[in-house]
Amino acid sequence: MNADPAVMEHFLRPLSREESDRMAERVEASIESRGFGLWAVEVKGSAPFIGFVGLSVPNFEAHFTPAVEVGWRLAAEHWGLGYATEAARAALAFGFGTLGLPRVVSFTNVANARSRRVMERLGMRREAADDFDHPSIPEGHHLRRMVLYRLDAP
Ligand SMILES: CC(C)(COP(=O)(O)OP(=O)(O)OC[C@H]1O[C@@H](n2cnc3c(N)ncnc32)[C@H](O)[C@@H]1OP(=O)(O)O)[C@@H](O)C(=O)NCCC(=O)NCCS
């Protein structure tokens, strides 16, 4: 999944096996230390791993941090079936219910229409004034401009 250029279109580059394994280790460590993270997504009875969906804490400073983010990445053959939205709803229920968070955010680059549609299906709201430049993406890069969506606890 992390090596697929289609999946990684909105990131700086696809990941090598080593980078992907390091990411999985960071995800596991986050779940262990915080009690939440980017959970593995399984399609019961057919696919033991189709990607990850869950809650994470952005590791950079911006006008909306500190914050908890809901995010997703699925292998391309599992797109278009509603799995990201279904899993994200479960992640939000955990965030608002079990963790008692007052608000959850999500962000992506302006052109990532599929991801933005997930945010909109979840009822998240974007204000243009909240758009920001991602500090880890070089100045002038087409992926740098991000849209921010927010959802307050029900
Ligand atoms: C972003 C991403 C997770 C979205 O996946 P997705 O499958 O399009 O999103 P969903 O799971 O919400 O599926 C919704 C789609 O399934 C369709 N669908 C089909 N059957 C469905 C069902 N039973 N229930 C709900 N939706 C269904 C919907 O119509 C919708 O299609 P549309 O957006 O073309 O109208 C996926 O494209 C991805 O992993 N991208 C690469 C990684 C990435 O960019 N991550 C975000 C970084 S911020």
Describe the protein's architecture and organization.
By secondary structure, the chain is α+β, with helices and mostly antiparallel strands. The protein contains 3 helices and 7 strands. It has helices spanning 17-34, 83-98, 113-121, and strands at 38-43, 47-56, 69-74, 103-109, 125-126, 132-133, 145-152. The strands form 2 sheets. Strands 4, 5, 6 and 7 form a 4-stranded antiparallel beta sheet that branches. Strands 1-2-3 form a 3-stranded antiparallel beta sheet. The longest helix has 18 residues, at 17-34. The model has no long low-confidence stretch (mean pLDDT 97). Bound molecules: coenzyme A (COA). The site of coenzyme A has 20 residues, from strand 3, helix 2 and helix 3. Residues 7, 10, 71-74, 79-85, 108, 112, 114-115, 117-118, 121 line the site of coenzyme A (COA).
